[in-house]
Structures are given as structure tokens and as C-alpha cells.
Amino acid sequence: MTVPTPAPGYPQQLDAAPAPTAPGSHPPFTPRPEAGPGKVDGQLNAKQKTVLGCGGMVAFFLIAAVVAAAVSPPEAKSAEAKPAPTVTVTATVTVTAPPPVAVKAPEPSPSPTQETAPPTAQVPDMTGKSGDLLVEALKTAGFADGYKATSFHDVSGQGRTVLLLTNWKICEQDPKNKAVPVTEKISVGVVKFGEACP
Q1: What is the tens place of the pLDDT at every residue in 77-123?
Q2: Of 136, 176, 170, which Cα lies nearest the Cα of 156?
Q3: SS3 90
Q4: Which of 1, 23, 56, 182 has its CA 20 to 30 A from that of 13?
Q5: Which residues pair with residue 122 across a beta bridge?
Q6: What is the pTM of this model?
């Protein structure tokens, strides 16, 4: 026989046969304990229902969280465990060398005989005329500067410097009536007008 556990605060009572009562008398009143933590009648008060309801919800959320945590890591691990795809790129580079450049041999410098000859001009005979007329005639013939193309000198024997060409008469000229290069100097001997040529 199982002995029920008494509610806290109440003394343990043994199952005994009820005491015989006299006819016409009532059995003595035994108060029933209020429902409490150790009650045996299976009824819960409102506070206990609220606590149990909240505890059940918390337990449900804990179980859901544990299940979610147990499911998620394998997926994350499987994503991490997959190696990244390896991409191999093969490039072919074709280099075309430029055609060889022929090295041109340096041209030999022209020898003095191969140089281009300067242009020539006809030197007129201006004997007996003034020196300035010879300068003009040489310029007309093709000399760049008639004065620089001539070399005047006094042939009287006095060794005078020839300055004003209009005052000097040409006694001798070399060359004359001849085509010469325009770079050639023309020698001209002069005396002052009124003097005799030697």
C-alpha cells in the first residue's frame, strides 16, 4: 500500500479505519488543506498557471534556438569548407620584331675637285674710267658686292690710299674682258685724274 505524502505543514496521518460513531452523531469535521505546492487534487491556482505557461514558452524558444544553432553551423561550415574555384588563364603573346633597318653608309665628303664650282661673271674692261664705274659694272655683271670684289692700289709710286673712287682713274685691270668666278678678286691700278698713267 502506498502512503501518500502529506502536504507541508500537516502531520502525517496513517490510514486507519474510521472510528465507530454513535447512532445519530456526525463524524468529526476535518478541514481539507488548501491547494498548495503539495496538493494532491490536481488543481492549480492562477499564479501557478501563469508561471507554467511562461516557462513552457521559454522552454519552447530555447529548444527552437538550440535546433536553429545545430542546423546553421553545418551549413556555414559547408560553405566555408568549399574551396574557391581555381581559374587558370593562359595568354599567348605574339611579338613581331620590326624589319631590320639597313644602315646607310656615310657619304664620302666631296673632294675639292668635286665641289660645286661658284658661278662665273664677265669682267668688263674699264681702263681709263673712274673706279666707281668699275664697281657698278661688276655688280651688274653678277658679283654680289662690286667694291669687295676689287682691290684698288695707287700706281703713281706715291703709295697713297685710294678712298674716293670718283677721283681715281683706272690705268690697269686684271682680269678684264674675261669670265671669272664671282669669288675672284680683281686687281685695279689707279692714279688721280689729271695724272698720267705710268
Answers
A1: 554 556 666 767 676 777 777 777 777 767 666 555 556 888 999 99
A2: 170
A3: coil
A4: 23
A5: 179
A6: 0.42
- Residue 151 sits at φ, ψ, to 5 deg, of -130, 100
pLDDT for 129 equals 94
Q: What is the dihedral of CA 134, 137, 143, 145, to 10 degrees?
A: 60
Distance of alpha carbon 44 from alpha carbon 42, whole angstroms: 7
H or E element at residue 181:
strand 178-181
144: amino acid identity, one letter: A
Beta bridge pairs of residue 150: 186
**Residue 141 CB: number of other CB atoms within 10 A?**
17
Task: Of 45-49, 135-139, 167-171, 185-189, give the lowest mean pLDDT range.
Answer: 45-49
Distance CA 113, CA 68 (A): 108
Q: Give start and end residues of each alpha helix (H) in the chain.
A: 46-81, 131-141
Q: Are 164 and 185 in contact (CB under 8 A)?
A: no
Q: What is the pLDDT of residue 29?
A: 54
